[in-house]
Amino acid sequence: SPEGTRPESPEGTRTTPVTVRVPAKVNVQLAVGAARPDGFHDLANVFLAVSLFDEVTATPADALTVTCEGPDADKVPLDRTNLAARAAEILAARAGLDPLVHLHIAKHIPVAGGMAGGSADGAAALLACDTLWGLNTPREELLDICAELGSDVPFSLVGGAALGTGRGEVLTPVTAGSFHWVFAVADGGLSTPAVFREFDRLTADAAVPEPQASPALLAALASGDPEALAATLANDLQPAALSLRPSLRATLDAGAAAGALAALVSGSGPTTAFLVADEEAAAKVAAALDASGTCRATRTASSPAPGATVLPS
Ligand code: C5P
């Protein structure tokens, strides 16, 4: 039926599409503890949202469907394993509704890249459906649903900069100055569980300490001084990602040689992240990485970026 005239719409339900913009993340510190009995790892995970965004549009429909556009759209699952679809299902079930929504994902965040692209779409779909269905679910409940969807999903909702503890889902906001980044997108993805399993294998004979947020890193993050932050960046998953994808070493080296202040694997990879002094340095490092033949594509971005946000219609 035409927009605005659906007689069956429950009160509060919008009939016009709702679009939510949601950022990617980079982990400036990812301290990983030993595997827990439930298979997850305790983390001290300092998340930083960066200005690479997906957009999820929710439109009333006769059934739950997902479509995707963007250069890597063919790598995005469109079934119920997509966190956007799962978010709609969980929210609808809580509200006693049928998830009669079409979710369209405009995909710019690298897929299976260690930048929480799938988590971002879950958080965005949750907020879009909550708005479309006029539910006004309290923020705390939305965060609970996010945590049910995945360890990184709560951060995608809140954005900015935060310390994640537990399996990464318990968030404390932290202060962050502004920074500039280059990201190198690798060919193919890496499976997060596989990278954690490789971490377990590589640390099997070592005593893995309790993960702790680094005071020096938090101070550098707050200061906005890129040299100070560069000296403190740390990712405990990097050896595991490099072990599964040794070719990432050449990408890290190419970015460092081009003048990046620091080079590291983003989260579980295989995207690599390069901290640079300013926008000009970002353009230079991105051009050098593009010319190096060690990655598939590059993106430049700044941080921090806001969390999931409903766009004006
Ligand atoms: O929470 P999420 O579903 O995103 O986690 C995906 C997988 O990553 C988990 O099944 C687990 O293998 C691994 N993981 C972990 N410890 C964490 C977060 C994720 O081992 N803190």
Automatic annotation (TrEMBL):
State which pathway it belongs to.
Isoprenoid biosynthesis; isopentenyl diphosphate biosynthesis via DXP pathway; isopentenyl diphosphate from 1-deoxy-D-xylulose 5-phosphate: step 3/6
- What catalytic reaction does the record list? 4-CDP-2-C-methyl-D-erythritol + ATP = 4-CDP-2-C-methyl-D-erythritol 2-phosphate + ADP + H(+)
Q: Does the keyword tRNA-binding apply?
A: no
The Enzyme Commission number assigned here is 2.7.1.148
User: Is NADP set as a keyword in this record?
Assistant: no
Annotated ranges, domain GHMP kinase N-terminal: 82-160
- Annotated region (Disordered) at 1-17
InterPro entries under this entry? GHMP_kinase_C_dom (IPR013750), GHMP_kinase_C_sf (IPR036554), GHMP_kinase_N_dom (IPR006204), IspE (IPR004424), Ribosomal_Su5_D2-typ_SF (IPR020568), Ribsml_uS5_D2-typ_fold_subgr (IPR014721)
Q: Where is the active site?
A: K25, D152
Q: Which family does it belong to?
A: Belongs to the GHMP kinase family. IspE subfamily.
Q: Output this protein's name.
A: 4-diphosphocytidyl-2-C-methyl-D-erythritol kinase
Organism, by scientific name, is: Streptomyces amritsarensis
Q: What is the lineage of its organism?
A: Bacteria, Bacillati, Actinomycetota, Actinomycetes, Kitasatosporales
